[in-house]
Amino acid sequence: MEKVRVKLSNNSYDVIIGAGLLAQTGARLRELEFSGKAVIVTDSTVKILYGDNLKKSLTKSGFEALLIEVPPGEEQKSLETAGRLYDELSGFHAERNTPFLALGGGVIGYLTGFVAATYMRGVPLIQIPTTLLSQGDSSIGGKTAVNHGRLKNMVGAFYHPRLTISDVSTLKTLPPSELSDGLSEIIKHGVILDGEFFSYL
Is the pTM of this model over 0.90? Predict the structure, then answer.
């Protein structure tokens, strides 16, 4: 396992990277002194693959866990879907210290991050990216947003997670095209910011 510290002027956080980390999520949240309730947001595809295992990790560590499932696709990144999540969170009596876990790719990360930033004026966000693109980009940049009409990512906020858990085991279920998408973004970072990293790639 590797741990990278994202250093910010306020609210610095860790990104942990390794295989088999989903099963440790409940214990990781306990280390951050969370307890009580926790909310998982994921799409129906990722739920089948990893949702139940993540929920089991939380309940094993004593959390009362709510799993909210949305259909896959960019169209779910909307104010309408955010409104449905607010209703479910209210019914669950999620509180200001209830961690929200974004389990999925960029759409889920952006949507859950936006909801976490705005529900009760901000609740703890845990990013759990399951695609290479989201592991290398959207889960660590602090950007959250939903689309509105023809406007993509135009309603949002910068809202950093308390922790990002990159379980590389989840990459085994990705098709080659999604791996290529993620690698192209990683290469772009090297081109823009780090010649040594680019040479390494």
Answer: yes
Beta bridge partners of 65: 38
Q: Report in angstroms the alpha-carbon separations of 42 from 13, 50, 62, 108, 128.
A: 22, 9, 21, 6, 10
- Those residues whose C-beta lies under 8 Å from the C-beta of residue 155, and which sit 6 or more positions away, are 79, 114, 145, 146, 147, 148
Q: Would you say residue 58 has pLDDT above 90?
A: yes
| β-bridge mates for residue 148, sequence order | 151
What tokens were used for 166?
Answer: 């990159």
Q: What is the pLDDT of residues 139-165, one digit of tens each?
A: 998 999 999 988 999 999 999 999 999
Q: What is the DSSP letter of 78?
A: B
C-alpha distances in Å from residue 145, one per residue of 88, 109, 155: 19, 9, 5
**How far, in Å, CA of 135 to CA of 60, rounded?**
26
